[in-house]
Design brief:
Elements (H helix, E strand, L loop, with lengths): L3 E10 L2 E11 L4 E5 L6 H8 L7 E6 L2 E2 L7 E4 L3 H4 L6 H12 L6 H11 L15 H14 L4 E5 L7 H18 L2 E6 L2 H7 L2 E5 L10 E6 L10 H4 L1 H13 L4
Parallel strand pairs: 3-8, 3-9, 6-7, 7-8
Antiparallel strand pairs: 1-2, 1-4, 4-5, 9-10
Bound molecules: adenosine-5'-triphosphate.
The site of adenosine-5'-triphosphate (ATP) has 12 residues, from helix 1.
Length: 254
């Protein structure tokens, strides 16, 4: 059984069809990139997968069960790490929020916090406050907090969109390493074609203003580039360039 199934999922908001019926499956451990122009419903699709909004039609199923609301098995990483973190709590205090919410005994907090901080390379910064860290480090804290939740699925909404190119590439590689280690299943929204291909096992391309002839789902493309991926070598592969051109055309530029 697929870990996540989108079965003719349609979403209307404010009386407007944002997402026309969309179907695809996600397998355990897969990295799914979701791409499309502004307003095509990427965030809405992710929010439906996390149980924050209900589908107007069809069903999203997690391990075969319809999603009816938020669950601790599904973590959500927001683009705006500044708003996601509590500025008056230290790094470890922010990570502890997930453990407090889960009712994890306080005696287990320290080990659990340091385990996830080691994973994201921030153990040495545990006592600092978010305001003392760079944007990339703050985003790592948010990811660590999600990992502390021990989710099965991680929804990431343009998590690196506000970061500079160097930081972004570093975090892309750190994320790929983490996913390879943990076998987490990830849905990752981005505006960036190269980021979508570089990270993804599969790319879901959406189009804005769906119609019966041109539904929301523009393309589902499998990325069969070798792993581990490499910022220089992968992006020079003829297959990478071919996928980039194909997606560019699907998204209406070609
Ligand atoms: N609660 C809401 N009520 C009414 N309309 C909404 C609501 N939330 C989002 N929308 C509209 O739905 C459309 C899709 O929004 P969504 O944020 O999912 O798009 P997106 O593809 O993630 O866009 P971006 O790339 O700009 O973040 C937009 O036109 C937005 O204005």
């Amino acid at each position: 059984m697929s870990i996540l199934e989108f079965d003719r999922v349609g979403i209307e908001l404010g009386g407007r069809e944002i997402l026309s019926p969309t179907s695809f499956h996600v397998e355990k451990g897969q990295f799914i990139s979701i791409i499309g122009p502004s307003g095509c419903g990427k965030t809405t699709l992710l929010r439906a997968s996390a149980g924050f909004v209900n589908a107007t039609g069809g069903e999203v199923r997690h391990n075969g069960r319809p999603i009816t609301g938020p669950s601790r098995e599904v973590a959500f990483v927001f683009q705006d790490y500044g708003r996601a973190l509590l500025p008056w709590r230290t790094v470890e205090g922010n990570v502890a929020l997930a453990l407090e919410a889960a009712g994890t005994p306080v005696s287990q907090h320290r080990d659990a916090i340091y385990e996830v901080l080691e994973t994201v390379g921030l153990a040495a910064h545990a006592k600092k406050f978010p305001g003392q860290l760079s944007g990339g480090m703050q985003q790592r804290v948010q990811i660590a907090r999600c990992l502390a939740q021990k989710p099965e699925l991680m929804m990431m909404d343009e998590p690196f969109g506000a970061l500079d190119a160097m930081t972004r590439e570093g975090l892309q590689d750190a994320l790929l390493e983490l996913v390879a280690k943990t076998r987490l299943t990830v849905l990752f929204v981005t505006h960036d074609l190269e980021e979508a291909i570089y990270l993804g096992d599969r790319v879901v391309a959406l189009r804005a203003n769906p119609t019966a002839q041109a539904p929301s789902l523009a393309a589902l493309i499998d990325v069969e580039l070798p792993k581990p991926r490499d910022q220089l070598a992968t992006k020079e592969e003829p297959e990478f360039l071919r996928l980039r051109r194909e997606l560019y055309q699907y998204l209406g530029h070609g």
